[in-house]
Design a protein that fits this description.
single chain; 393 residues; alpha/beta; TIM Barrel; Lyase, Ornithine Decarboxylase, Chain A, domain 1; 2 domains; 7-stranded parallel beta sheet; 6-stranded antiparallel β-barrel; disordered N terminus; D-amino_acid_metab_enzyme; PLP-binding_barrel
Length: 393
């Protein structure tokens, strides 16, 4: 497999000027807010002396990635090999594939290495290590792997005190692969409810990663990488001693889950879904739109937070929120807007044909429903450009 300029995996077009009024529902991005969000995290991590390896899984966009690196390629995290292949074809050569490895995907990993990409894979078992070692022996490509460590019982990874981490490293190195270090994702931070909890989650993530890396080093492995990160912990870490990089992705857009945790404010949300009012059910207190879950996703990530935001807050097209108006229900192509339960606010007058914006519960899930972003010109309020998104695995 060659990733030459001529054979690069294609996106659905490059950045292009907008043509006319987009059809609803569509995904709208405010580039000024994106730039502000990026600058905020970069400044914070610079103050802690640790580089950012941004996760492109939220935006899945070369145009957004350019904002992260001032137009030049830099180190990135991906969640699919499709992302790795597309970004590699556009000059990104330092890539971390941060999802547990399925062994049958190793031929694609090797192809990227042969095209000049330093692609790190993620494993948490001896079986995966054996597969990585076998392909390294067979191909002569020394595949680097990070060992995933579970710091909070969130999802996957080896337990911090499990000696299997050393066995994984031994299996990798014996077979000609590389045990490059450890990776942690403090997914439990999404359940934090105070600044103190977020700071504590970030410190636990850091300390756990450093401890496991030191155990690997004591066993004779270099383990140069300690990779940590989630959007909440990236914004609340007070100390990153021993950490070599921080990963985060949601921060480019933010969403109502992040606002509910206290990582950002609603004003920081850089992405929304524009929908059109198509009907009313006055006896039910409903406003009906053409944006159902196919446009916004079914994610209900704020349902367990102190304030449930339904399927999203509703804002006027020109910016201001409609007081206590939520998207509270969705079918495939219909959205239902109602006043928040218990509120004394009146249902606003939104005639048929009115366009409004739905602020997303989970930016990753909402973005995944769309092929492209319509990009706002903040000076005029019009859509100026179209940024394609990549899809697939």
């Amino acid at each position: 497999m060659s990733l030459t300029q001529d054979a690069r995996p294609a996106l659905a077009g490059e950045v292009r000027p907008a043509e006319g009024q987009p059809e609803t529902p569509f995904l709208l991005v405010d580039p000024e807010r994106v730039a502000r969000n990026v600058a905020r995290l970069r400044s914070r991590l610079a103050g802690l002396g640790t580089p950012l390896r941004p996760h492109v899984k939220t935006a899945k966009s070369l145009a957004v990635a350019r904002l992260l690196f001032d137009g030049e390629p830099g180190p990135i995290t991906v969640s699919t090999l499709r992302e790795a292949e597309v970004f590699a074809a556009h000059g990104y050569s330092d890539i971390l594939y941060a999802v547990g490895l399925a062994p049958h995907k190793l031929d694609r990993v090797v192809a990227l290495h042969r095209a000049g990409v330093d692609l790190q894979v993620l494993i948490d078992s001896v079986a995966q290590a054996e597969a990585v070692a076998a392909v390294s022996t067979r191909t002569g490509v020394r595949v680097p792997a990070l060992i995933e460590v579970d710091c909070d019982g969130h999802r996957s990874g080896v337990r911090p005190d499990d000696p299997v981490a050393v066995r994984i490293a031994e299996t990798l190195e014996r077979g000609g692969a590389e045990a490059r270090g450890v990776l942690l994702h403090a997914g439990g931070s999404y359940h934090c409810r105070s600044r103190a909890e977020l700071v504590a989650a970030a410190e636990h993530e850091r300390a756990t990663g450093v401890r496991v890396a030191e155990r690997l080093r004591a066993a004779g492995f270099a383990a140069p990488v300690v990779s940590v990160g989630s959007t909440p912990t990236a914004h609340f870490a007070a100390d990153l001693t021993g950490v070599t990089e921080v990963r985060a992705g949601n921060f480019v857009f933010f969403d109502l889950v992040m606002a509910g945790i206290g990582v950002c404010t609603v004003d920081d949300l850089a992405m929304s879904v524009v929908v059109t009012v198509i009907g009313h059910q006055p006896e039910r207190g409903w406003i009906v739109t053409d944006g159902g879950w196919m446009a916004t996703s079914r994610d209900r990530g704020t349902a367990q937070q102190p304030v449930d935001q339904g399927y999203g807050l509703v804002a006027r097209l020109d910016g201001p929120l409609c007081p206590d108006l939520l998207m509270t229900d969705a079918s495939q192509e219909h959205g239902i807007l109602t006043v928040r339960p218990g509120s004394s606010a009146a249902l606003p007058e939104l005639p048929v044909g009115t366009r409004v914006r739905i602020l997303p519960i989970h930016a990753c899930a909402t973005g995944a429903q769309h092929d492209e972003y319509q990009v706002l010109d903040p000076a005029t309020g019009a859509v100026a450009e179209v940024w394609p998104r990549l899809r697939g695995w």
